[in-house]
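assembly run, all chains below
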Amino acid sequence: MIRLCSVILTGGVLTMLLACSTIAGDKECETKGAMSTTKAITGPIKAQHPPLSEQDKLRPCFECHKDITPQIYTQWYNSAHGIGNVKCYQCHGTYEDMYKVPAVSNCSMCHAAEAEDYGDETPCWNCHLNHTFKGH
Amino acid sequence: MSLSRRDFIKRSAALTAASYVGMNLPFGQHNVAHAVDADKWVRGTCRLCGVGCRLELGVKNGRPVALRGVPEARTNYGYLCMKGMLFYKMMQHPERLKKPLYRERKNQPFKEISWDEALDIAAKKFAESVRKYGNDSTAYYGSGQCQTEETYIFQKVMRGGLKTNNVEGNPRLCMASAVGGYMTSFGADEPIGGYANIERSYCMFIIGSNMAEAHPVFFRRVMRQKLDNPDKVKIINADPRISATSRIADMHMQFRPGTDMALMNAMAYVIIDEGLHDEKFINNYAVFKVGKDGKELDLDGFKQSISEYTPEKAAKICGGNITPEDIRKAARWFATSQGSLSMWCMGINQRKQGVWANNLIHNLHILTGQLCKPGADSLSLTGQPNACGGVREGGGLCHILPAHRPVANEKMRHEVEDLWGIPRNRIPPKPGYHTMAMFEAVNEKKIRAIWINCTSPAQSLPNVTPYRKGMQSDDVFMVCTDIFPTKTTECANLILPTAFHFEKTGVYGCTERRSQLTTKAIDAPGEAMPEVWIVREWALRLAKELNDPVIKKCVEPFLDKEPDYELPQAVWDEYTQKLTKGQDNDLRGATYDVLKQMKDGVQWPAPTKEFALTGGTVMKFVRGSDPLAEKRAKNDKPYQFYGHAHPDHKLWVWSRPYVGADEEPDADYPLYLSTGRIIDHWHTTSMTGRVPELLRANPYSFVEINPRDASRMGIKPNDMVEIESRRGKVEMPAKVMEGPMEGMLFAYWHDMHEDRMINKVCHDAYDPGSKEPEFKICACRARRISGPKALKPYLTQLNE
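ok done. output:
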């Protein structure tokens, strides 16, 4: 079975498509998360949100992003993070300090043991597709 | 359809044009932190709900810079919610209280004074109140957010020193009915099991709890058990409102507010009618009771007493979407699963019939033997981090002395007096004012000096307006100890700045009888001090003012201890080694040294260090798990229900008839109103409102309205709606959604803006047994007052 994992980053002039594949049964890949020979984006990548008034910053992220990035919204909503109410700002920060790609250390706030096992070089989203968080 | 970036900017611009412009909340550099930069990580407990998540505070150059979960902790296994991830950001917020502040009269601005002056004033004013109006004119009102050491030392000085039982705390507003339920059904307060049952449970009955928002990390465990075993695990969610918690439910039972007692009686009816009860368990461990005098019944008598609650009749009473077949199905799932776990919170407790509603949940467990075995428990979720450990166990309510001793019990009172080394009969036998009576007594000028610690009753009491007027009066001298300005500091004469946890050392005891230590990681800002130091110094001055050496005697064991570690340790040692010895919450094994070694903490009873180091008692009353079950065994049965409230060592199944809410809708006020927490905020937002991410996620309260009601009233999403009850009115934006059932509104209560403070509307009727108010149900009316309005978040500032 071929598993395709893609991380699409759009923002400013940066548009990247990272595709990585793995063959089921590759124990080393599954256990260590080394899914690809392509170097993963490890983050963090800072972002600047398009300008918003202070009042608009008081709206929950999903209210706009439900329309603007519906696929991401749906993926998140149906994921364990969505059901468990892990919100956008917990990974991506807020307007003064926002990350398009969060630092792995951000994931480690909850997933410290896993982050320690894999280190910064193998970011979580190498195996756990971002926003659905499914993997393995 | 996705929008292009251009569309997005256009949309944003349009929103901006329609919006209010301007914010006065400081979002500065103190909010920026980078987890990887920490010099050291200091272990402690989150204080923003009752789950007791273990975490570590990252410190760099003496400043808090990050938080992370502790993966080995049996409470949260490393997971944190947004509050637990981000609370470090408010620790050094510029609006932290840093100096003692005083004003003679409440219409004057506060002025900074020294600690010496502040403590002298506090002592003089309390002494004056004692001399002029008697000891019971003084009062202490504390919090489930205080550390155990703080509650313990405050109540010791009040009872032993000032000779009054006017010792209360905000857990009266949230947990008192759970205490009443446990005492009357199981004979002892606090749950039998704990979180470890979640992963072993195959039927979870969630009633009156939106745990997905109020206890997010606990919910994660429940969610994971369901997602990992989608076919084996059944989740029943019973609530008048569909909430975030309902997403994992197999069955959502939506009943008319206040009719859950009919629902649970009907489940008991089905269990007995279909022979699903566990006769052996009942014969071994249970008796049936009815009425005020607890007259005993047999199983047939009990069956007769609930014979009117057929599923058909109960479904009619409950209304909503409930069918008789749903009730039967829920009862069967509950009775026949390998392990059934009930979980509830304020929807059950904050009720005029809160204790009875608790009893009816326990009934289901006793009837089916769903107790004391893996996955089976009747688990009341605690709202605050130390409502259990500090207030319920530490003597923080007017009727209980430390370690679950009723104050009215002469033997136990003398026991405490002897342990404290103070003369017998120093502690009065009569319980003090319970919370609602206490603030009524403030209104009636019976209380003339009150100390409010770490809580904000001027926002959090139900029907808050008249009580706030009392607090604002110059007839009562009010001290507030807190870290930020609140609606209550607005009513104070004296504000004393305190250390946040992690700026001091102390213990929190969470929902599952687990005590966990947080050690000091950084210095408190400015001159803020730990409460244990404040109380000690105040008591010494009070002793001089009243020329009463017994007051000094109350703090004598704690003299000359440095305030950051030695002092709280000495208080904890006295409490655990002396006061809990021989009691059901025996914590002698949980010394600071032991607690420091534990990644999480210790579940009581834990009489020895060796046992405490294993983590303590996972399942109370079970031989082999609970050392007291062996010690207090009366026979060779595996379970020993030794709680002191049931001398027969039995579980009591209570016949409790369905009684509705105190205030039902009528022609003038045709809707039900209920209120609750939102995930991003803690209580009154004085803390979480100062973290930008949390504030922005939910900057003000809103009201959820069922689409059919909204359509009838002409209310569209985001319209401004006025909600009015017999007590007051507020206005807030509407969210039109299939949340609350038709005929019901649901409002969030965290907002401290005068126009949106929903507790002005709530009802202050209370349970006759637990004295806990019925926050959750009242009658109201609503009307659209305008289209969408741009609102401004609001946080109280000093000297506004």
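Residues 61-68 of chain A form the longest helix (8 residues).

The two ends of chain A are 12 Å apart (CA to CA).

not gonna interpret more than that til we talk
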